[in-house]
Amino acid sequence: MKIFGLILLLLTGQVSLAQETLRIDNASREYDVLIRVQACGEEAHEKNPNTCNGPAQVSLYKKGDRLPFQILRLKNIEFYKDTLAYNPALNKNPRLLYEEEYGVVFDDFDFDGKQDLAICNGRNGGYAGPSYNIYLFDKSSNRFVENRRLSKLNEGVYLSLFFPDAKKKLLTTFSKSGCCYHETEKYRVVRKKPVLVEKIIEDAMSGDGNVLITTKKLVNGKWVKRVTKEKIDQQ
Fold first, then answer.
1. Could you tell me how far CA 84 lies from the centroid of its own chain?
2. Per-residue pLDDT tens over the stretch 15-64
3. HSE on the CB side for 111, CA within 13 Å?
4. Which residues pair with 174 in a beta bridge?
5. Is the CA virtual torsion 42, 46, 50, 52 positive or negative?
6. E strands within 152-221?
7. 60 near 137, Cβ under 8 Å?
8. Following CA atoms 4, 41, 120, 92 in sequence, which dihedral angle do they give, to the nearest 10 degrees?
9. 3-state SS of 59-73?
10. Residue 41 confidence (pLDDT)
11. Which stretches of the chain score pLDDT less than 70?
């Protein structure tokens, strides 16, 4: 029994050492976030002191409250400590493709005037890029609810988290195949569902020094297609 108790104590000690708790109070003017993640630093799969990943519990607090109003449990979460969170209302620099990756992002993804939430769940995006769970704030229940349709726009072929345009009320996604084929898609969110309204294909795979640009737009319920060719800028 003593040996069993010692083994149990050692195992418990190993688990507690691997876990880490991080509090985020600068990601939103409305909410604070407390993340309990299974592994950080040398315990994480990258063996990097800046990296955290594994099963996680994300507790959401309204500013000034001592108790969380909602707790999210994820099978996996992944982030870097130095780019833990982003909010366009608080961060001076905008998010850019191929630039900094953020673990937690507050933004209005469905353009209803309420902050929504994105949490990085791993690297299931294009070219092993970050993928995200998207949670829309539901006014009736006063809770964040995952929207799987929007989550899918941040995994598979898509590169990183989509980019909201508050003025045009559009979400923009990017994907590519190698250096010379790129796709840009723009979605309007209708009744919490993403609806594709524009697609731009830039194809420079012919090798003739030109890029073939195909633009498709949804106009009055019908797709309008336009094809142009431009000389590749060699600079």
1. 12
2. 344 689 999 998 899 999 999 999 998 888 778 889 999 999 999 999 99
3. 16
4. 184
5. negative
6. 163-165, 170-176, 181-190, 193-203, 210-219
7. no
8. 150
9. EEEECCCCCCCEEEE
10. 86
11. 1-18, 234-235
Q: Are 133 and 109 in contact (CB under 8 A)?
A: no
pLDDT at 235: 53
Can you say whether residue 5 is alpha, beta or left, with left for phi > 0 and alpha for psi between -120 and 50 degrees? alpha
CA–CA separation, 136 vs 117, rounded Å? 6
Q: Would you give the DSSP letter of residue 9?
A: H
For residue 111, give the 3-state DSSP assignment: coil
Alpha helices, DSSP H, located in the chain: 2-18, 148-151
Q: Sign of torsion, CA 23 25 26 32?
A: positive
3-state secondary structure of 127: helix
Instruction: For residue range 7-25, list pLDDT tens digits in order.
Output: 333 333 343 446 899 999 9
Q: 192: exposed, middle or buried (C-beta count within 10 Å: 0-12, 13-18, 19+)? A: middle
Q: CA nearest 203: which of 220, 217, 184?
A: 184
What phi-psi label fits residue 11: left (phi over 0), alpha (psi between -120 and 50 degrees) or beta? alpha
Q: Which long-range contacts (CB under 8 A, 24 or more apart) does 51-54 make?
A: 51/78, 51/79, 51/80, 51/81, 52/20, 52/22, 52/77, 52/78, 52/79, 52/80, 52/81, 52/103, 53/77, 53/78, 53/79, 53/122
